[in-house]
Task: inverse folding
DNA sequence: TGCAGTGTTGCTTC
DNA sequence: CGAAGCAACACTGC
């Protein structure tokens, strides 16, 4: 390694599999822990951010309402993390959207008062990680350990919610739920006929949780070019896309998410899905489909980079 | 040295 | 209603 820290800043937010991996990690490691203190350095912004911890007034409330409460479990809706906490009958839900570069870890961290900065204590995976420099929210528990938010670009949104339904009313169905039938998919995906199929797959109003990586991967296995308008995608192609949504997302969860960039799981470890890409960020390389021989191309669609094989995707 | 690229959401404007 | 453009932010690579 020669002391060189080799890492790329390739910002892409956690998508469904990454968020699910984090939620599973919280349920494994952080359940029943009682909050004793909360620190942030994001609460120095103007009030224009509304009810989130970037608003200093809100952060004070956030802290007061959560200290003394116990984590009872985490769940996921779209790319949002929901953490339920309780103190007697007094229940709150912490809502975290990791946006571009956020990720959450649990371990032992120490505070440097002079620098107003937190560091992982020795002997932890996170210590080796270049992203440990960007801790912006630290929740300390009565056992002395911390749940931390690392976020290079500080886009993550952290708040408290009372009503899930109100908060998430604009979101499309969850693709891994059994209610996500072929009929539901067809109804949703055809809502904006003039948009590209890739853009529609990533539209959170149509389907929840799919972003740039998984939309590219789904379209590759379904053999559909990303730039086609939805109205020009055949019924056969739409059913192929539907057929592959669940397996591709489940594969992402199975491999612990994608760490092409900054994503880390609750232990500070990388996921392994980046080693499984057929197309995403494989521009100029050979198509992963056996016997295809195509070379992966990259094209900007609606301001986002799409990766695809011009030979086997039609 | 400076600026485009990186990806997502939500707000503004039309 | 919708689409398109941009801001939120940090850092890299050219």
Result:
């Amino acid at each position: 390694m020669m002391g060189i820290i080799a890492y790329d800043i390739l910002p892409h937010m956690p998508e469904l599999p990454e968020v699910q991996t984090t939620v599973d990690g919280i349920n494994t490691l952080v359940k029943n822990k009682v909050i004793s203190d909360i620190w942030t350095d994001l609460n120095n912004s103007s009030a224009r951010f509304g009810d989130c911890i970037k608003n200093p007034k809100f952060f004070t409330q956030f802290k007061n309402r959560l200290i003394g409460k116990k984590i009872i479990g985490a769940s996921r809706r779209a790319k949002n993390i929901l953490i339920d906490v309780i103190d007697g009958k007094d229940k709150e839900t912490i809502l975290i959207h990791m946006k571009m570069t956020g990720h959450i870890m649990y371990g032992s961290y120490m505070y440097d008062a002079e620098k107003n900065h937190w560091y992982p204590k020795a002997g932890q995976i996170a210590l080796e990680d270049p992203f440990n420099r960007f801790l912006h929210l630290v929740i300390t528990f009565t056992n002395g350990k911390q749940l931390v938010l690392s976020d290079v670009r500080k886009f993550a949104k952290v708040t408290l919610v009372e009503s899930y339904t109100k908060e998430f009313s604009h979101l499309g169905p969850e693709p891994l739920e059994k209610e996500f039938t072929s009929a539901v998919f067809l109804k949703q995906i055809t809502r904006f006929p003039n948009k590209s199929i890739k853009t529609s797959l990533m539209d959170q109003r149509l389907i929840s949780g799919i972003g740039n990586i998984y939309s590219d991967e789904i379209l590759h296995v379904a053999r559909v070019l990303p730039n086609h308008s939805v109205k020009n995608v055949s019924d056969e192609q739409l059913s192929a896309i539907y057929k592959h949504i669940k397996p591709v997302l489940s594969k992402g969860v199975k491999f612990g998410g994608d760490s092409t960039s900054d994503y880390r799981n609750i232990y500070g470890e990388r996921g392994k899905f980046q080693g499984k890409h057929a197309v995403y960020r494989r521009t100029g390389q050979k198509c992963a489909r056996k016997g295809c021989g195509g070379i992966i191309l990259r094209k900007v669609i609606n301001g986002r980079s799409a990766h695809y094989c011009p030979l086997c995707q039609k």
